[in-house]
Design brief:
The protein is mainly beta. It folds into 2 domains: about 30-190, Protein Transport Mog1p, Chain A, CATH 3.40.1000; about 195-470, Glucose Permease (Domain IIA), CATH 2.70.70. It is about 10% helix and about 30% strand. It has 5 helices and 31 strands. The chain has helices at about 100-110, 165-175, 190-195, 200-220, 235-240, and strands at about 30, 35-40, 45-50, 55-60, 65-70, 85-90, 115-125, 125-135, 140-150, 150-160, 175, 245, 265-270, 275-280, 285, 315-320, 325, 330-340, 355-360, 360-365, 370, 380, 390, 400-405, 410, 415-420, 420-425, 430, 450, 460, 470. The strands form 8 sheets. Strands 12, 16, 18, 19, 20, 22, 24 and 27 form an 8-stranded mixed beta sheet that branches. A 7-stranded antiparallel beta sheet has the order 4-5-6-10-9-8-7, sandwiched between helices. The longest helix has 20 residues, at about 200-220. The chain is elongated.
């Protein structure tokens, strides 16, 4: 998504923040023609020198570790959306040095189906750490434990291929550990379990409830709740050869927002007879990969045949206003709800997310500010169930909902999906879409639905980069 101007609170991490006018400005350093910046966190006791264009994401809530993540603007493809993060560097403030070996062995055991490897690695200026590589995530993931005196640090590293590459080793070499100047408790961060179910402000919640009620009424008038059919296993097996296939006819799939999404300021485009212009007062718009979000086969969404990673080739980023309602892409049973922070942050970029399973299909809705009350593992959700509220957790981007469906995934011991086949939509149900919606301000495409069945239910059936849609 579009880059943020101010990255962090200067109170904890000093990087890319505007200092007071009278404060001295540290000059960036240059090594081999590359301009660098020094990131220092006086709570975690961490300093690191990285390229000046790397982005930093401070922990937004209190996990069982405290630190920050580093993002590189480039990646395997170009675009405005940073790919998976470079690293997450954190103080494991609940761990003692003599516990590291037990934690490493436990990690190897928990993820044994991935055949992880362990090795000794040098961190900083000669500290000896232990790295476990081959862990699952949005990209191949390694986790390093290292002690500096009585303090223990946990460093997660993402790479294009399993193991430590030159970039990952460069991060480890550049790390410097210092005596923390303040306690983690002094930050007054909201504990993750409390943040997970935090309600939006009262005025927003009232709007969200009203929108849900109106959506439910419209749904009843337009075909009602869908009957989810399962594709015959023989058909799926035939299509799985390419690790991907199109949406089966019986698989219900829908847009995941409603008119509480005012990301585009509640404006819609109107054709004047000569050109398109914007008219206020018509919220509920989003666009496929709008606002520089990731698109099929680009940026984050490049994996579709990996047996040990999250395959998201046909995921889409839908711009969504903070705290807007988010609905499940498909109906079913909740199989994950929350942040991944237990021992492997390989899924860190999803932030606060929900997984809904229906048969062998799983839908992910990610980057939620918070999850709706009552949405927990085992909860049944229908077409009009609010599963959470849009946000930007998991990285330094604007608010959006990351959504995708996959087939035949496996689960880690912790309940995280991986492997399987990615599925692309061929028929996306919408509720508030209309037959007269125009396209964007430049006159590109259109926002009207493509199909209306005999029950009155409406659908989009054409999918392309930047297509505007209504929930």
């Amino acid at each position: 998504m579009k880059r943020l101007g101010t990255l962090l609170s200067c109170a904890a991490v000093l990087v890319a923040c505007e200092p007071p006018p009278d404060a001295p400005r540290p000059a960036p350093t240059e090594a081999a023609g590359v301009t660098t910046q020094t990131i220092r966190d006086d709570v975690a006791g961490i300093a690191i020198e990285v390229p000046s264009d790397w982005r930093v994401q401070q922990d937004p809530v209190l996990f069982n570790t405290y630190g920050f993540a580093l993002f590189e603007p480039g990646g395997p493809t170009s675009g405005g959306h940073e790919r998976s993060p470079v690293a997450r560097v954190a103080l494991a403030y609940q761990v003692k040095p003599d516990q590291i070996e037990g934690l490493v062995r436990e990690l190897m055991s928990k993820y044994q189906e991935f055949s992880p490897t362990r090795a000794e690695v040098v961190v900083g200026q000669g500290l000896r750490g232990t790295v476990v590589s081959g862990l699952p995530g949005t990209d191949p993931y390694s986790l390093v434990y290292v002690a500096d005196g009585e303090r223990v640090y946990r460093i997660g590293l993402w790479t294009l291929e399993p193991g430590l590459d030159s970039r990952a080793r460069g991060v480890l070499a550049s790390l410097r550990f210092e005596q923390p100047q303040r306690s983690v408790q002094s930050l007054n961060l909201v504990p993750v379990e409390q943040a997970k179910y935090a309600e939006p402000p009262a005025e927003q919640m009232e709007l969200n409830r009203r929108a849900q009620a109106e959506r439910t009424l419209l749904t009843a008038m337009e075909g009602g709740e869908p009957k989810q059919e399962q594709l015959r296993e023989a058909e799926v097996s035939a299509q799985q050869v390419a690790c991907e296939f199109g949406q089966p006819g019986g698989l219900f799939w829908q847009t995941v927002w409603d008119y509480t999404n005012q990301f585009y300021s509640g404006y819609t485009t109107v054709y004047s007879g000569t050109y398109y212009n914007l008219r206020p007062g018509d919220p509920g718009w989003s666009a496929m990969s709008g606002n520089y979000g990731s698109w099929w086969g680009q940026n984050y969404h490049i994996r579709k045949c990996n047996t040990g990673l999250l395959n998201q080739y046909y995921a889409n980023d839908w711009p969504a206003h903070k705290n807007a309602n988010v609905y499940p892409a498909t109906t079913g049973v909740v199989e994950w709800a929350g942040w991944d922070y237990a021992d492997s942050e390989g899924y860190y970029t999803l932030g606060n997310y929900v997984v809904v399973r229906n048969g062998s299909y799983r839908a992910i809705m990610a980057h939620l500010t918070s999850i709706a009350s009552g949405i927990a593992w085992g909860t049944s959700v229908g077409m009009n169930t609010i599963i959470g509220y849009a946000g930007k957790t998991g990285g330094p981007w604007d608010e959006h909902v990351h959504s995708r469906i996959a087939y035949g995934e496996s689960l880690t011991y912790n309940g995280q999906p991986y492997g399987g086949s990615t599925v692309w939509p061929t028929k996306l149900r919408c509720v508030s879409c209309r037959a007269t919606d125009p396209g964007d301000a430049a006159g590109n495409g259109d926002g009207q639905f493509d199909l209306k069945d005999s029950t009155g239910a409406k659908f989009y059936t054409r999918f392309y980069h930047g297509r505007w849609m209504r929930g």
